[in-house]
Amino acid sequence: MKVNRTYSIDVHLVHQLRSKRNQSAIVCRALKMFLAGEGEFSASQVATKTLLASLQGRLDISEQLNAVITAELTKGSE
User: Fold this and answer.
1) Is there a contact between 73 and 56 (Cβ–Cβ < 8 Å)?
2) In CA terms, which of 29, 50, 57, 64 is 20 to 30 Å from 73?
3) Are residues 36 and 60 in the same domain?
4) What average pLDDT does this structure show over 12-21?
């Protein structure tokens, strides 16, 4: 049985999730892992572009770092 619920999540997660197929299944799987205690991970397990996108969404980075991150994230999509 499935139930629709509304929760608040960070906007950068919304942007990343938007490009994925079957977003509900991804969220369910992540929540199940978290609730089972299997959600612990190291930052080294996260893809570089995902880490950069997360950093870019922060307000405490300099304009220079933001510019470098933007350049890296857009590299190859031109």
Assistant:
1) yes
2) 29
3) no
4) 89
Q: What is the DSSP letter of 19?
A: T
Q: Tell whether 35 and 56 lie within a shared domain.
A: no
| Stated pTM of the model | 0.46
Residue position matching structure tokens 């950093």: 55
Q: Which domain holds residue 69?
A: 42-78
- Angle among Cα 72, 58, 75 to the nearest 5 degrees reads 10
Return the DSSP state at 44.
G
Helix axes 11-18, 23-35, angle to 10 degrees: 130
- 20 & 50 share domain: no
Q: What is the pLDDT of residue 45?
A: 75
Please tell me the predicted confidence (pLDDT) of residue 66: 93
